[in-house]
Amino acid sequence: MSDYIPFNKPFLTGKETSYIEDAVKSGKISGNGKYTERCQNYFQNRYHFNRCLLTTSCTDALEMAAILINTEPGDEVIVPSFTFVSSANPFILRGAKIVFADSRPDQPCIDEDRLEKLITVKTKAIVPVHYAGVACDMDKILHLARKYNLFVIEDAAQSIDSFYNDRPLGTLGDLSAFSFHETKNIISGEGGMLVINNKTLMDRAEIIWEKGTNRSAFFKGEVDKYGWVDIGSSFLPSEIIAAFLWAQLESLNSIQTMRKLIWRNYYDLLSDPFFNQRISLPTLPEFATNNAHMFYVKCKNESERAALIAHLKARGIHAVFHYQSLHRSPYFSSQHDNRRLEFADLYSNTLVRLPFFNDLSEDSVAWVVESIRDYYQNI
Ligand SMILES: *Cc1c(COP(=O)(O)O)cnc(C)c1O
Predict the structure, then answer these.
(1) Going by CA atoms, what residue is nearest to atom 5 of ligand 1?
(2) Which long-range contacts (CB under 8 A, 24 or more apart) does 205-211 make?
(3) Which atom of ligand 1 is nearest to the CA of 130?
């Protein structure tokens, strides 16, 4: 018997509390201070994002995005069905209609080849979600966006340090949103970031970020007083959060090395021929990199998945399924047209995520894999 293996465990580098203490002692703990700037600059320099603004969550970053592109009633926004509610909800809040798209047969990401027929004169934006940090085929999506004059907003919540060919995810859309929720690679408890690549949206982004005021421009000396100039909300995190995030960013390379090792370890052990006919492993399109955000396998069907999860649970291993198709959700199902989204449902019903966190030991990975083997040997 082995110890309980949780699904996720927040990883601390050890510097978080000292940076928080520094922020607290400096007397500046509201947002947009030293640590916020450090984090934003780090991302801008490392990944060549045009402009980064820390937010209190990825959900908030997407809400900012929805405001920035002037989403309004009558607009349609194309979102994959197999994703988190926050990919869609921000546009609903602005009165838009969501048109859900199916996933690729080989990949939970949106099926780029079946997107064009979803575009109408009302379509305002496409929201590709890089599931598991694996890139969508962005050239195809950007081509459609240019052809029909649409915004592209990357839901890059899971995509830190991942690439489409040699281009960092988050640099491809007009806007992109990252998450630092405790389940992601780099964390701050709750936290997120909006990336503004489209230069025409840059100035307004800061205003929306600062509750609809031009406070940012005022502090940069660009205007001599600040006031209410647009709509906005309280989207910026405190310096306490940014200080925590800074500690994580300093260790980004080593965190990624640890995660990639764990991922490789799972993949190698599960590549055993015994598993070939029983489960399927994640695949990587030739244009995508793997940032080791998660490790999942696919079962043959929903009941087999439920039994596998229960079997692992009995052994103290916490494996979980993931998104349930949003077009079938209690909130949305009555608004969905009748299109079948076959692959979104397939991933909803068969995908299972295995325990994955930075200090998951090699022994634990082996134990999880042996427990999966044991399940299939006994059915
Ligand atoms: C985690 C996640 C979000 C939400 O991130 P928060 O920071 O918790 O708001 C949105 N979209 C996807 C794809 C996610 O994985």
Answers:
(1) 58
(2) 205/51, 205/53, 205/64, 205/68, 206/53, 207/232, 208/64, 208/67, 208/68, 208/232, 208/233, 208/235, 209/53, 209/55, 209/64, 209/235, 209/236, 210/32, 210/236
(3) 13
CA distance 31 to 37: 10
Write the pLDDT tens digit of every residue in 101-139: 999 999 999 999 999 999 999 999 999 999 999 999 999
Ligand 1 atom closest to the CA of 87, numbered from 1: 11
User: Does the beta carbon of 158 lie inside 6 Å of ligand 1?
Assistant: yes
Reported as a single tens digit per residue, the pLDDT across 301-358 is 999 999 999 999 999 999 999 999 999 999 999 999 999 999 999 999 999 999 999 9
Burial label for 264, CB within 10 Å (0-12, 13-18, 19+), is middle
Say how many C-beta atoms besides its own lie within 10 A of residue 320's C-beta.
15
